[in-house]
TrEMBL record:
Belongs to the class-II aminoacyl-tRNA synthetase family. Its EC number is 6.1.1.21. The keyword Transmembrane helix does not apply. It is an enzyme of class 6 (ligase). This is Histidine--tRNA ligase. It comes from Streptomyces gossypii.
Length: 419
Protein backbone atom coordinates (compact mmCIF):
# COMPACT_ATOMS: atom_id res chain seq x y z
CA UNK A 1 0.00 0.00 0.00
CA UNK A 2 1.13 3.57 -0.58
CA UNK A 3 -0.30 6.73 0.96
CA UNK A 4 -1.88 7.50 -2.39
CA UNK A 5 -4.58 5.83 -4.42
CA UNK A 6 -5.86 6.42 -7.97
CA UNK A 7 -8.27 9.40 -8.15
CA UNK A 8 -12.00 8.65 -7.96
CA UNK A 9 -13.46 7.43 -11.24
CA UNK A 10 -10.12 6.17 -12.57
CA UNK A 11 -8.40 2.82 -12.49
CA UNK A 12 -4.96 1.48 -13.31
CA UNK A 13 -4.28 -0.94 -16.09
CA UNK A 14 -1.83 -3.59 -14.98
CA UNK A 15 -0.84 -7.09 -16.09
CA UNK A 16 -2.46 -9.47 -16.79
CA UNK A 17 -5.62 -7.44 -17.64
CA UNK A 18 -3.66 -4.74 -19.45
CA UNK A 19 -2.78 -7.23 -22.20
CA UNK A 20 -6.48 -7.77 -22.99
CA UNK A 21 -6.97 -4.02 -23.06
CA UNK A 22 -4.14 -3.53 -25.56
CA UNK A 23 -5.46 -6.34 -27.73
CA UNK A 24 -8.92 -4.74 -27.77
CA UNK A 25 -7.48 -1.41 -28.81
CA UNK A 26 -5.59 -3.16 -31.59
CA UNK A 27 -8.66 -5.11 -32.76
CA UNK A 28 -10.83 -1.98 -32.85
CA UNK A 29 -8.36 -0.08 -35.00
CA UNK A 30 -7.28 -2.93 -37.32
CA UNK A 31 -10.29 -2.68 -39.68
CA UNK A 32 -9.70 1.10 -40.02
CA UNK A 33 -6.11 0.57 -41.05
CA UNK A 34 -7.31 -1.79 -43.78
CA UNK A 35 -9.77 0.83 -45.02
CA UNK A 36 -7.43 3.75 -45.71
CA UNK A 37 -7.59 5.57 -42.37
CA UNK A 38 -4.29 7.19 -41.33
CA UNK A 39 -3.22 7.55 -37.70
CA UNK A 40 -3.68 10.93 -36.00
CA UNK A 41 -2.55 11.99 -32.54
CA UNK A 42 -3.50 15.29 -30.95
CA UNK A 43 -2.68 16.79 -27.53
CA UNK A 44 -4.46 15.63 -24.40
CA UNK A 45 -5.61 19.21 -23.80
CA UNK A 46 -6.95 21.92 -26.08
CA UNK A 47 -8.29 25.45 -25.82
CA UNK A 48 -11.51 25.19 -23.82
CA UNK A 49 -13.39 27.14 -26.51
CA UNK A 50 -12.76 24.38 -29.07
CA UNK A 51 -15.06 22.10 -27.09
CA UNK A 52 -17.58 24.70 -25.95
CA UNK A 53 -18.02 25.80 -29.54
CA UNK A 54 -17.64 22.37 -31.15
CA UNK A 55 -19.39 19.98 -28.76
CA UNK A 56 -21.90 22.62 -27.58
CA UNK A 57 -22.30 24.92 -24.55
CA UNK A 58 -25.57 23.26 -23.60
CA UNK A 59 -24.30 19.67 -23.54
CA UNK A 60 -23.56 17.95 -20.25
CA UNK A 61 -20.06 17.23 -21.54
CA UNK A 62 -19.23 20.93 -21.80
CA UNK A 63 -21.42 22.46 -19.11
CA UNK A 64 -20.75 19.91 -16.33
CA UNK A 65 -18.07 17.43 -17.23
CA UNK A 66 -15.01 19.25 -18.53
CA UNK A 67 -11.77 19.36 -16.60
CA UNK A 68 -10.66 22.92 -17.20
CA UNK A 69 -7.61 24.87 -16.06
CA UNK A 70 -6.10 28.27 -16.49
CA UNK A 71 -2.37 28.27 -17.18
CA UNK A 72 0.03 30.66 -15.44
CA UNK A 73 -0.08 32.67 -18.65
CA UNK A 74 -3.87 32.96 -18.44
CA UNK A 75 -4.76 30.50 -21.23
CA UNK A 76 -7.98 28.54 -20.71
CA UNK A 77 -7.40 24.87 -21.43
CA UNK A 78 -9.50 21.73 -21.05
CA UNK A 79 -8.54 18.07 -20.89
CA UNK A 80 -10.12 16.60 -24.01
CA UNK A 81 -13.55 15.11 -23.27
CA UNK A 82 -13.80 13.63 -26.80
CA UNK A 83 -11.76 13.39 -30.00
CA UNK A 84 -13.79 14.73 -32.91
CA UNK A 85 -13.31 18.46 -32.33
CA UNK A 86 -9.55 17.96 -31.76
CA UNK A 87 -9.01 15.81 -34.85
CA UNK A 88 -10.96 18.20 -37.05
CA UNK A 89 -9.05 21.14 -35.56
CA UNK A 90 -5.76 19.41 -36.33
CA UNK A 91 -6.77 18.52 -39.91
CA UNK A 92 -7.90 22.09 -40.61
CA UNK A 93 -4.77 23.54 -39.04
CA UNK A 94 -2.56 21.34 -41.26
CA UNK A 95 -4.74 22.04 -44.33
CA UNK A 96 -5.24 18.34 -44.92
CA UNK A 97 -8.58 19.17 -46.54
CA UNK A 98 -6.75 20.94 -49.38
CA UNK A 99 -5.54 17.52 -50.57
CA UNK A 100 -7.83 14.70 -51.68
CA UNK A 101 -11.16 14.30 -49.92
CA UNK A 102 -12.29 12.62 -47.81
CA UNK A 103 -9.46 12.84 -45.30
CA UNK A 104 -9.76 9.61 -43.31
CA UNK A 105 -8.14 9.54 -39.86
CA UNK A 106 -8.16 7.21 -36.88
CA UNK A 107 -6.98 7.83 -33.33
CA UNK A 108 -6.72 6.17 -29.96
CA UNK A 109 -6.15 7.58 -26.53
CA UNK A 110 -7.37 8.85 -23.17
CA UNK A 111 -10.37 11.13 -22.66
CA UNK A 112 -11.60 12.86 -19.53
CA UNK A 113 -15.09 13.62 -18.28
CA UNK A 114 -16.06 14.65 -14.77
CA UNK A 115 -18.99 12.24 -14.63
CA UNK A 116 -20.57 10.46 -11.68
CA UNK A 117 -18.51 7.26 -11.60
CA UNK A 118 -20.27 3.92 -11.82
CA UNK A 119 -19.68 0.54 -13.47
CA UNK A 120 -18.56 1.31 -17.03
CA UNK A 121 -18.50 5.08 -16.49
CA UNK A 122 -15.15 6.57 -15.63
CA UNK A 123 -13.58 10.00 -15.40
CA UNK A 124 -10.63 8.81 -17.42
CA UNK A 125 -11.44 6.40 -20.24
CA UNK A 126 -10.08 5.24 -23.53
CA UNK A 127 -11.48 5.46 -27.05
CA UNK A 128 -10.53 4.32 -30.52
CA UNK A 129 -12.04 6.75 -32.99
CA UNK A 130 -12.35 7.39 -36.72
CA UNK A 131 -13.25 10.52 -38.66
CA UNK A 132 -13.86 10.82 -42.42
CA UNK A 133 -13.70 14.50 -43.30
CA UNK A 134 -15.00 16.31 -46.34
CA UNK A 135 -17.41 14.01 -48.17
CA UNK A 136 -21.16 13.75 -48.18
CA UNK A 137 -21.67 10.19 -49.27
CA UNK A 138 -23.95 7.62 -47.64
CA UNK A 139 -21.34 4.95 -48.44
CA UNK A 140 -18.95 6.67 -46.04
CA UNK A 141 -21.50 6.56 -43.21
CA UNK A 142 -22.13 2.90 -44.03
CA UNK A 143 -18.40 2.16 -44.24
CA UNK A 144 -17.83 3.42 -40.70
CA UNK A 145 -20.75 1.49 -39.24
CA UNK A 146 -19.62 -1.68 -41.04
CA UNK A 147 -16.03 -1.24 -39.81
CA UNK A 148 -17.14 -0.88 -36.18
CA UNK A 149 -19.47 -3.85 -36.56
CA UNK A 150 -16.66 -5.97 -38.03
CA UNK A 151 -14.25 -4.86 -35.29
CA UNK A 152 -16.64 -6.02 -32.56
CA UNK A 153 -17.28 -9.26 -34.41
CA UNK A 154 -13.54 -9.89 -34.78
CA UNK A 155 -13.33 -9.87 -30.98
CA UNK A 156 -16.04 -12.52 -30.86
CA UNK A 157 -18.76 -10.21 -29.50
CA UNK A 158 -22.33 -11.20 -30.36
CA UNK A 159 -24.70 -9.46 -27.96
CA UNK A 160 -24.51 -5.96 -29.34
CA UNK A 161 -27.06 -4.02 -31.34
CA UNK A 162 -26.76 -1.05 -33.66
CA UNK A 163 -29.26 1.76 -33.14
CA UNK A 164 -29.68 4.08 -36.11
CA UNK A 165 -31.39 7.43 -36.61
CA UNK A 166 -31.26 10.57 -38.72
CA UNK A 167 -31.25 13.99 -37.05
CA UNK A 168 -31.94 15.94 -40.24
CA UNK A 169 -29.93 18.82 -41.65
CA UNK A 170 -29.90 22.61 -41.51
CA UNK A 171 -33.07 22.71 -43.65
CA UNK A 172 -35.38 20.38 -41.79
CA UNK A 173 -33.93 20.28 -38.28
CA UNK A 174 -34.91 23.87 -37.28
CA UNK A 175 -38.51 23.25 -38.37
CA UNK A 176 -38.63 20.07 -36.33
CA UNK A 177 -36.95 21.75 -33.37
CA UNK A 178 -39.65 24.42 -33.29
CA UNK A 179 -42.42 21.82 -33.51
CA UNK A 180 -40.84 19.83 -30.69
CA UNK A 181 -40.42 22.93 -28.52
CA UNK A 182 -44.07 23.77 -29.09
CA UNK A 183 -45.06 20.33 -27.86
CA UNK A 184 -42.67 20.25 -24.90
CA UNK A 185 -43.68 23.68 -23.58
CA UNK A 186 -47.16 22.32 -22.94
CA UNK A 187 -45.93 19.49 -20.68
CA UNK A 188 -45.62 19.36 -16.91
CA UNK A 189 -41.83 19.49 -16.42
CA UNK A 190 -39.36 20.72 -13.80
CA UNK A 191 -37.47 24.01 -14.18
CA UNK A 192 -34.24 22.49 -15.42
CA UNK A 193 -36.01 20.51 -18.13
CA UNK A 194 -37.95 23.66 -19.09
CA UNK A 195 -34.67 25.45 -19.54
CA UNK A 196 -33.42 22.55 -21.66
CA UNK A 197 -36.45 22.92 -23.97
CA UNK A 198 -35.17 26.37 -24.91
CA UNK A 199 -31.50 25.45 -25.47
CA UNK A 200 -31.48 21.81 -26.52
CA UNK A 201 -35.00 20.40 -26.89
CA UNK A 202 -33.88 17.16 -28.59
CA UNK A 203 -32.09 16.15 -25.40
CA UNK A 204 -35.41 16.11 -23.56
CA UNK A 205 -36.39 13.10 -25.69
CA UNK A 206 -33.43 11.32 -24.12
CA UNK A 207 -34.63 11.93 -20.53
CA UNK A 208 -34.64 8.55 -18.80
CA UNK A 209 -37.24 9.43 -16.12
CA UNK A 210 -40.51 7.55 -16.46
CA UNK A 211 -42.62 10.62 -15.62
CA UNK A 212 -41.03 12.48 -18.51
CA UNK A 213 -41.10 9.56 -20.93
CA UNK A 214 -44.83 9.04 -20.32
CA UNK A 215 -45.53 12.59 -21.46
CA UNK A 216 -43.40 12.14 -24.56
CA UNK A 217 -45.53 9.37 -26.06
CA UNK A 218 -47.05 11.68 -28.69
CA UNK A 219 -44.05 13.96 -29.19
CA UNK A 220 -43.33 14.87 -32.82
CA UNK A 221 -40.54 12.75 -34.29
CA UNK A 222 -37.65 13.90 -36.47
CA UNK A 223 -38.45 11.17 -38.97
CA UNK A 224 -41.77 12.78 -39.82
CA UNK A 225 -40.00 16.09 -40.46
CA UNK A 226 -37.04 14.92 -42.56
CA UNK A 227 -36.68 16.80 -45.85
CA UNK A 228 -36.54 14.82 -49.08
CA UNK A 229 -32.72 15.07 -49.23
CA UNK A 230 -32.27 13.69 -45.70
CA UNK A 231 -34.85 10.97 -46.26
CA UNK A 232 -33.14 9.75 -49.44
CA UNK A 233 -29.69 9.93 -47.81
CA UNK A 234 -30.83 7.93 -44.80
CA UNK A 235 -32.52 5.33 -46.97
CA UNK A 236 -29.26 4.81 -48.87
CA UNK A 237 -27.29 4.32 -45.64
CA UNK A 238 -29.85 1.73 -44.51
CA UNK A 239 -29.74 -0.01 -47.89
CA UNK A 240 -25.93 -0.27 -47.82
CA UNK A 241 -25.99 -1.72 -44.30
CA UNK A 242 -28.57 -4.31 -45.28
CA UNK A 243 -26.48 -5.18 -48.31
CA UNK A 244 -23.44 -5.73 -46.04
CA UNK A 245 -25.62 -7.92 -43.76
CA UNK A 246 -25.15 -5.56 -40.86
CA UNK A 247 -28.31 -5.71 -38.76
CA UNK A 248 -29.53 -2.43 -37.25
CA UNK A 249 -32.57 -1.11 -35.42
CA UNK A 250 -34.22 2.18 -36.29
CA UNK A 251 -34.29 4.17 -33.07
CA UNK A 252 -36.30 7.30 -33.68
CA UNK A 253 -35.48 8.59 -30.19
CA UNK A 254 -31.72 8.25 -30.52
CA UNK A 255 -30.27 11.65 -29.65
CA UNK A 256 -26.57 11.78 -28.97
CA UNK A 257 -25.02 13.80 -26.15
CA UNK A 258 -23.04 16.10 -28.46
CA UNK A 259 -24.51 19.01 -30.41
CA UNK A 260 -22.62 18.69 -33.68
CA UNK A 261 -24.60 15.85 -35.22
CA UNK A 262 -26.59 16.14 -38.44
CA UNK A 263 -28.30 13.37 -40.44
CA UNK A 264 -26.90 9.89 -39.64
CA UNK A 265 -26.45 9.09 -35.94
CA UNK A 266 -25.85 5.67 -34.44
CA UNK A 267 -24.93 3.90 -31.28
CA UNK A 268 -23.58 0.42 -30.56
CA UNK A 269 -25.17 -0.91 -27.39
CA UNK A 270 -24.25 -4.09 -25.56
CA UNK A 271 -26.95 -5.94 -23.68
CA UNK A 272 -24.71 -7.25 -20.89
CA UNK A 273 -23.57 -3.90 -19.49
CA UNK A 274 -26.50 -2.52 -17.48
CA UNK A 275 -27.16 1.21 -17.69
CA UNK A 276 -23.84 2.17 -19.35
CA UNK A 277 -24.66 0.06 -22.37
CA UNK A 278 -23.22 2.23 -25.17
CA UNK A 279 -19.95 0.66 -26.29
CA UNK A 280 -19.58 3.11 -29.15
CA UNK A 281 -21.33 5.86 -31.03
CA UNK A 282 -21.03 8.44 -33.72
CA UNK A 283 -22.61 10.10 -36.69
CA UNK A 284 -22.40 12.78 -39.31
CA UNK A 285 -21.41 16.34 -38.41
CA UNK A 286 -21.75 18.41 -41.57
CA UNK A 287 -21.61 21.80 -39.86
CA UNK A 288 -18.78 21.36 -37.35
CA UNK A 289 -15.97 22.58 -39.59
CA UNK A 290 -17.71 25.90 -40.14
CA UNK A 291 -18.44 26.17 -36.42
CA UNK A 292 -14.68 25.96 -35.90
CA UNK A 293 -14.01 28.65 -38.48
CA UNK A 294 -13.17 26.22 -41.30
CA UNK A 295 -14.68 25.71 -44.75
CA UNK A 296 -17.75 23.59 -45.43
CA UNK A 297 -16.54 20.06 -44.76
CA UNK A 298 -19.33 17.49 -44.35
CA UNK A 299 -17.93 14.68 -42.20
CA UNK A 300 -18.80 11.52 -40.33
CA UNK A 301 -17.12 9.52 -37.58
CA UNK A 302 -17.37 7.37 -34.50
CA UNK A 303 -15.64 6.58 -31.26
CA UNK A 304 -15.65 3.17 -29.57
CA UNK A 305 -15.09 2.90 -25.84
CA UNK A 306 -12.19 0.55 -25.10
CA UNK A 307 -13.04 0.19 -21.39
CA UNK A 308 -16.63 -0.78 -22.12
CA UNK A 309 -15.61 -3.14 -24.91
CA UNK A 310 -13.40 -4.96 -22.39
CA UNK A 311 -16.42 -5.15 -20.03
CA UNK A 312 -18.57 -6.46 -22.90
CA UNK A 313 -16.05 -9.24 -23.54
CA UNK A 314 -16.18 -10.14 -19.87
CA UNK A 315 -19.99 -10.11 -19.94
CA UNK A 316 -19.95 -12.60 -22.83
CA UNK A 317 -17.28 -14.74 -21.15
CA UNK A 318 -14.79 -14.15 -23.97
CA UNK A 319 -11.08 -14.44 -23.16
CA UNK A 320 -8.94 -13.26 -26.05
CA UNK A 321 -6.32 -15.63 -27.31
CA UNK A 322 -3.21 -13.55 -26.64
CA UNK A 323 0.35 -14.34 -27.72
CA UNK A 324 2.63 -15.48 -24.88
CA UNK A 325 4.61 -12.69 -23.29
CA UNK A 326 7.44 -15.13 -22.45
CA UNK A 327 8.38 -18.21 -24.49
CA UNK A 328 11.61 -19.09 -22.73
CA UNK A 329 12.68 -18.56 -19.13
CA UNK A 330 16.36 -18.78 -18.20
CA UNK A 331 17.42 -20.17 -14.82
CA UNK A 332 21.13 -19.77 -13.95
CA UNK A 333 22.62 -21.53 -10.96
CA UNK A 334 25.84 -19.75 -9.95
CA UNK A 335 27.68 -16.62 -11.06
CA UNK A 336 29.44 -18.01 -14.08
CA UNK A 337 26.24 -19.62 -15.36
CA UNK A 338 24.51 -16.25 -14.96
CA UNK A 339 26.86 -14.58 -17.37
CA UNK A 340 26.60 -17.31 -20.01
CA UNK A 341 22.84 -17.60 -19.77
CA UNK A 342 22.30 -13.84 -19.81
CA UNK A 343 24.24 -13.77 -23.08
CA UNK A 344 21.97 -16.50 -24.49
CA UNK A 345 18.81 -14.60 -23.43
CA UNK A 346 20.05 -11.43 -25.12
CA UNK A 347 20.81 -13.40 -28.31
CA UNK A 348 17.36 -15.05 -28.27
CA UNK A 349 15.64 -11.70 -27.86
CA UNK A 350 17.64 -10.29 -30.75
CA UNK A 351 16.36 -13.24 -32.81
CA UNK A 352 12.79 -12.28 -31.94
CA UNK A 353 12.15 -14.88 -29.21
CA UNK A 354 10.35 -13.61 -26.09
CA UNK A 355 12.71 -14.58 -23.29
CA UNK A 356 13.05 -13.73 -19.59
CA UNK A 357 15.63 -14.38 -16.92
CA UNK A 358 15.60 -15.33 -13.22
CA UNK A 359 16.97 -12.08 -11.79
CA UNK A 360 17.95 -11.56 -8.20
CA UNK A 361 19.97 -14.75 -7.62
CA UNK A 362 16.98 -17.04 -6.98
CA UNK A 363 17.53 -20.67 -6.00
CA UNK A 364 16.37 -23.43 -8.37
CA UNK A 365 12.99 -23.98 -6.71
CA UNK A 366 12.01 -20.32 -6.66
CA UNK A 367 13.33 -19.74 -10.16
CA UNK A 368 11.29 -22.66 -11.56
CA UNK A 369 8.22 -21.26 -9.83
CA UNK A 370 8.82 -17.93 -11.63
CA UNK A 371 9.33 -19.82 -14.91
CA UNK A 372 5.93 -21.50 -14.55
CA UNK A 373 4.27 -18.26 -13.50
CA UNK A 374 5.67 -16.47 -16.56
CA UNK A 375 3.69 -18.75 -18.87
CA UNK A 376 6.89 -19.75 -20.73
CA UNK A 377 6.87 -23.01 -22.69
CA UNK A 378 10.56 -23.74 -22.11
CA UNK A 379 13.09 -23.23 -19.33
CA UNK A 380 16.83 -23.12 -19.96
CA UNK A 381 18.62 -24.30 -16.81
CA UNK A 382 22.36 -23.93 -16.45
CA UNK A 383 24.25 -25.30 -13.42
CA UNK A 384 27.97 -25.53 -12.65
CA UNK A 385 28.26 -29.12 -13.89
CA UNK A 386 26.41 -28.37 -17.18
CA UNK A 387 28.71 -25.46 -17.69
CA UNK A 388 31.77 -27.66 -17.28
CA UNK A 389 30.28 -30.05 -19.86
CA UNK A 390 29.37 -27.23 -22.25
CA UNK A 391 25.61 -27.93 -22.24
CA UNK A 392 22.37 -26.26 -21.17
CA UNK A 393 19.32 -28.19 -19.97
CA UNK A 394 16.27 -27.20 -22.01
CA UNK A 395 13.08 -28.23 -20.26
CA UNK A 396 9.66 -28.33 -21.88
CA UNK A 397 7.50 -26.91 -19.08
CA UNK A 398 4.30 -28.40 -20.50
CA UNK A 399 5.48 -32.03 -20.88
CA UNK A 400 8.26 -31.97 -18.26
CA UNK A 401 10.69 -33.46 -20.81
CA UNK A 402 14.28 -32.22 -20.42
CA UNK A 403 17.10 -32.36 -23.00
CA UNK A 404 20.76 -31.29 -22.80
CA UNK A 405 21.68 -28.96 -25.69
CA UNK A 406 25.26 -27.94 -26.52
CA UNK A 407 25.93 -24.36 -25.46
CA UNK A 408 26.93 -23.14 -28.90
CA UNK A 409 23.72 -24.48 -30.47
CA UNK A 410 21.23 -23.48 -27.78
CA UNK A 411 20.03 -20.23 -29.38
CA UNK A 412 19.33 -21.86 -32.76
CA UNK A 413 17.68 -24.93 -31.20
CA UNK A 414 15.48 -23.03 -28.78
CA UNK A 415 14.44 -20.67 -31.54
CA UNK A 416 13.46 -23.64 -33.71
CA UNK A 417 11.50 -25.22 -30.84
CA UNK A 418 9.59 -22.01 -30.19
CA UNK A 419 8.75 -21.84 -33.91
P1 LIG B 1 -19.52 9.49 -27.15
O1 LIG B 1 -20.81 8.74 -27.39
O2 LIG B 1 -19.55 10.59 -26.18
O3 LIG B 1 -19.06 10.01 -28.57
O4 LIG B 1 -18.40 8.46 -26.71
C1 LIG B 1 -18.13 7.30 -27.47
C2 LIG B 1 -17.94 6.10 -26.56
O5 LIG B 1 -16.95 6.38 -25.58
C3 LIG B 1 -19.17 5.73 -25.76
O6 LIG B 1 -20.06 4.95 -26.53
C4 LIG B 1 -18.56 4.94 -24.62
O7 LIG B 1 -18.31 3.60 -25.01
C5 LIG B 1 -17.24 5.65 -24.40
N1 LIG B 1 -17.36 6.56 -23.24
C6 LIG B 1 -17.85 7.81 -23.23
N2 LIG B 1 -17.82 8.32 -21.97
C7 LIG B 1 -17.30 7.36 -21.18
C8 LIG B 1 -17.00 7.27 -19.77
N3 LIG B 1 -17.22 8.28 -18.94
N4 LIG B 1 -16.47 6.11 -19.30
C9 LIG B 1 -16.23 5.06 -20.14
N5 LIG B 1 -16.48 5.11 -21.46
C10 LIG B 1 -17.01 6.23 -21.98
C11 LIG B 1 -17.94 10.74 -28.79
O8 LIG B 1 -17.05 10.88 -28.00
C12 LIG B 1 -17.85 11.29 -30.20
N6 LIG B 1 -16.61 12.06 -30.32
C13 LIG B 1 -17.92 10.16 -31.21
C14 LIG B 1 -17.82 10.65 -32.63
C15 LIG B 1 -16.73 10.62 -33.40
N7 LIG B 1 -18.80 11.19 -33.32
C16 LIG B 1 -18.33 11.53 -34.52
N8 LIG B 1 -17.08 11.20 -34.58
Amino acid sequence: MSTFSAPKGTYDLLPPDSAQFLAVREALSAPLQRAGYGYAETPGFEHTKLFSRGVGESTDIVSKEMYTLTTKGGTELALRPEGTASVLRAALEANLHRGGLPVKLWYSGSYYRYERPQAGRYRHFSQVGAEALGAEDPALDAELIILAHDAYRSLGLRNFRILLNSLGDKECRPVYRAALQDYLRRLDLDDETRRRIEINPLRVLDDKREGVQRQLADAPMMRDHLCEGCKAYHEQVRELLRDAEVAFEDDLRLVRGLDYYTRTTFEFVHDGLGSQSAVGGGGRYDGLSQMLGGPELPSVGWALGVDRTVLALRAEGIALDLPRTTEVYAVPLGDQARQVLFRAVTALRREGVAADFAYGGKGLKNAMKSANRSGARFAMVLGERDLAEGIIQVKNLESGEQLPVPLDRVVAEVRAKVG
